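Reopening this one. Same input as before:
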Amino acid sequence: MPPTPPRRPAWRRALHALVLGYGVCATLALAVVLASTDAHAVGYVLGLFAVWWLAPALVLVPLTTAARWWWSAAAVAAPAVAAGALLVPYAVHRVDPVDRTPDLRVATFNTTSYRGADGLARLVRDAAPDVLALQEVAPAQRAGYEARYGSLYPYRSWSAPSSQGDGDAVWSRFPITSVVPVTGLPTGARPADVVTLDVAGRPLAVVSVHLASPCLFCTDRAVARSPAGTTGNAARVRVGEARRFADVATQLRSRGDAVVVAGDLNSAELNEPLRELRSHGLVDAHRAVGTQPGLTRGASPGFARVDVVLVAGLDPVDTFEGAPGGSTHSPVVADLAWPR
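Same output, byte for byte:
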């Protein structure tokens, strides 16, 4: 009679079961994110937090392979591929940074109205961007901002306030040649303008965007106050906004303008709006050259990268995040160069 193989230690069996359970759950969550199109709160939130629950898969792949836990290795394969797609480019960019001199510095910042005033002052002082795309600026703040920053940014455009009482803005060191409201946005969207600048003879169109805010697990009263309505409807509004802004960017590029679409997307990389914008030729500057996840929503580090600088007709050189200074978002700064 052959000898009975030694029984694995209990801790090893428990660890194997834990890894297998994680792999199965993460794979199912990934399927939900890719199939739900943000229409349900669960899929939307999973997309926002994807960096956090996918990252362990990168560590578990070599662990399960070395331990010959083949079922667990198979279970973590899909999450590991998704985590690699999200995180590995940052390591690559760190090893091989872009070696170019930038021509232009652009920043975007959701100031969260009065809470982000200190963060804005620090951003202007430390980063000194040439162009600023701002979101959630209260109308009552404009006079103070004009007095404080007017000499630094002599060219300013303010969008019409949204139904929530705040608006977007574009501040520039370069002359503004035109301001055209974006039409065709879905009901519940915030107003936005195409602000065209003259950058040493080159046209640069800048759109400061703030996609529809989610109303997660809202009461009926909160839904009634939300311009975009329920979670599912807000998701559809964000996708509609993304498609419209993508169309606008395509039209601007066809007439020869370089384009910057910057702002708060209320969406992360695995949510549909950012995927939609990137699929139409807009380049995510942080994705192109960033060296860290850059999670901008919430206290540093935040829980998701929802604030982005997207470009067409410009080459990203570097990106970094500033201090929020009381805002619920961190500002994003992108150094850009004209194509060679």
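So the earlier flakiness isn't reproducible anymore. For the record, The chain is about 40% helix and 20% strand.
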